[in-house]
Amino acid sequence: MRIRDDRAHDEPEINLVPLIDVILVLIIFFVITTTFDARSTLQLKLPSASQQPSDVPAKSLSVLVNAEGRYFVGDSEVLRTDVDALKQAINQAAGTDRGQPVLLRADGRTPHQAVVTALDALAQLNFKRVSIATAPEQAK
């Protein structure tokens, strides 16, 4: 009795399905873990003022308030809009240095309450050097 060996006639093939799965997982991982520059996505329209611009030191804490009243401290967004969440985010960004200058950049269309909340949080944390950013007045 002769036993036939079919293994000699099998052609080797590469199964691409697991490779595609691995590449898809890597793409999803890189998209989720990529950090984006928050300053480039925020479109702020600063209120105008007639004063000359002052020099802000390079090492200042930046607090941004966009037109919807959402807060950004440094490079991260504050998820809640209450004073306690804002104070916690400022504490994380500033550490124990209360003498550093703070630049408050609020959109001109921001609700007034959002700016007052930011100023209140900074005052409760004993920040003394707070500047409000403005754009130069446009010539008419």
**What is the arithmetic mean of pLDDT?**
81
Give me the CATH architecture, please. 2-Layer Sandwich
The span between the termini is 104 Å
The domain tally reads: 1
In total, the number of strands is 7
The helix fraction, in percent, is: 25-40%
Q: Give me the oligomer status.
A: single chain
Number of helices: 4
Shape: elongated
Biggest sheet: strands, sense, closure?
A: 5 strands, mixed
Q: What would you call the structural class?
A: alpha/beta
CATH topology call: Nucleotidyltransferase, domain 5
Query: Rg from C-alpha positions?
Result: 27 Å
Roughly what fraction of the amino acids lie in strands?
A: 15-25%
SSE string = HHEEEEHEHEE
* Spatial strand arrangement across the major sheet: 4-3-2-5-6
Give structural notes.
Strand 3 (71-73) and strand 4 (76-78) form a beta hairpin. This protein has helices at residues 17-33, 38-41, 83-94, 112-124, and strands spanning 48-49, 61-65, 71-73, 76-78, 102-106, 130-132, 135-136. The strands form two sheets. It has a five-stranded mixed beta sheet, covered by helices on one side. The protein is built from four helices and seven strands, in the order ααββββαβαββ. With 140 residues, the chain is an alpha/beta fold. It has one domain: Nucleotidyltransferase, domain 5, CATH 3.30.420. The chain is 33% helix and 16% strand.
